[in-house]
Amino acid sequence: MKKKHHPLYLTVLYPLFFLTLTAMGSCSQSEVESFAVRLYAPREEGWQQDGQLSLAEEPGVRPEQEGRLLPLEGGYASPRYTLARDAEREAESFHVYYSSTSLVKLELHFDNDERRDLILEASGGEPREYLVPLRGRDLLSFRFVSNGPTEPEFRLLELALRRRSAKGRPGERGYGFLHFPDEAGKEPRFGQYQVSLRYQFSPQQEESRSGEEIGDYLVEIELESAEGSRGTYDLYAKPGGHGVYFYSRDLGFSPHRLAIDSELEGFQVEGLSYGVRSLFAARRPEPIPADPGIILDYPRQLWRRGDWELFSWNIFPSILFFDFRDYQVQANFLKRLAFFVEKKGSAGELLPNEVIADRHGWNAHDYRAGDLARFFELARRSGFRLNQEEYLLREILLDQGIIKMRGESYQAGEGGILSLSQESSERLRYLFMIHEAYHGLFFASAEYRLEVERLWRALEEDEREFWRVFLDWRSYNTEDEYLLMNEFQAYLMQQDLSYVETYFKDYTIPRFLRLYPEFTEAAEYFLDEYPDHFIDSAREVEKAAWQVAGIQAGDLLCLRRREGKIARTGDEG
Are residues 253 and 221 in the same domain? Predict the structure, then answer.
């Protein structure tokens, strides 16, 4: 099949030098017709064509199968493509143009026996560019792999190598190489451009960041339009490999260039991708991958639906964020779940609307996959009539694999959901985001859950009793120990360590005793016997969160727009 170009990639910043591509199969050689290979050369260097660029493919396949995934034991994979030894010489970056309906892994093999696995995001059938910085490494071979149960609609459209430019090269740890096609200046009619940056960060010190300045891990990212408009972000780099996302509508312009300024030891850009994301108001829209900082700042006028928007956490994609227009819309989706999963006196029961109508749910919510599956399975088996919004929620959860069907039954998948409302004040939205996202971490990371459980069980019985009384006051089902541990860590982590003592000793406990003075003697005993309980527990929980996900108490936002409205805060109000 002849390659079809999409307009997004027809015009590029640098002239293109075409090289002949030869596919050398295991049995014979044939001309590849399904995708092209290009060499991008900097204008100022005056590069000339210096020979043939060849790819060897193994196994050899028919031309119509090239650039596609073929059935493989346990999944699907493309042939392995090996570059000619002189092809990658002095190459700065490797570019892949593709389209795919699902996630696909790109396996890269380098000459020092290094292997890197990168994730190519689903593009919704639209062409997308993925750029891999080579950083002086020689790329030998690559292939595309999917371990999903069904064949993804993956198409490799084009490959390219970009030669180094002697002029304007970024520093050793700075990056400024991404220039988007000129067509990027033209906003798509029913979409917005999404820029995804994948980085790896391995600081020498990965202990709890207690006592460290958060700015120690600061990276500056600047996006610029062809006309000179700029958006600058502060990236608070987290240890490990993570992705962050930028959107043209959020920026206010279509990006033409991206530059990264970093002096962090151990910080490396693993890849950048660029493509169009649909803004159609679908009944069940695909989640928008985003950092919590972007979610808090995301303009409501850009929502694909008038009453809510759906995001996924960039660090833990199995955790979905709903942002609702107001408390009533949120209640239509999630209030019955609150009474079924967490509320004392009703946990495990499906209460009719008329019973819960005058009772308070939560202003923000969190539910793990297992509890969501139990809710919908009980409703199915008992014939309980749900709200239309709850049926829609069930469809979304099935779409995203958070719950699954096994025969006629609903079973737990992976991850969970979190929610906020636009009706909350900016200060409370920030607080709720931190609190709920820590629940998301608890759902998503078995390692973190085990460490929190270890800390919980290491407490004295009097310490655990404080949390039972406190959470009972807050209307939680204290018979559920999983819930106790989950709320224990979230209430400790919702504020910076410097505010933990203030929150509990100067605000929460005095407020509780004004309502229940009969607990005064017990509270005084607890504070005298365990004066450092809150700060010591918070430090230990934060250490676990930092080691697992590189996030800290009171602030797990990785990305903030410089001119955005988000500020760090430590009080609940």
Answer: yes
Quote the CA–CA distance of 398 and 385 in Å, as a whole number. Answer: 19
Residue 42 and residue 187 share a domain = no
Residue 560's alpha-carbon distances to 218, 254, 472, 570, in angstroms, are 11, 19, 36, 17
Buried b (16+ CB within 10 A) or exposed e, 246-279: bbbbbbebbbbbbbbbbebeebbbbbbbbbbbbb
Asked whether residue 570 is domain-assigned, the answer is no
User: Which residues, other chains included, contact 318 with Cβ-Cβ below 8 Å and sequence gap of 6+?
Assistant: 312, 400, 401, 402, 413, 414, 415, 416, 444
Helix axes 369-382, 388-399, angle to 10 degrees: 130
pLDDT digits 0-9 by tens, 456-504:
999 999 999 999 999 999 999 999 999 999 999 999 999 999 999 999 9
For residues 260 and 355, membership in a common domain is answered with no
CA distance 449 to 347: 22
- Residue-wise pLDDT for 404-424, tens only, equals 999 999 999 999 999 999 999
* Residue 174 and residue 163 in one domain: no
**Shared-domain flag, residues 17 and 163:** yes
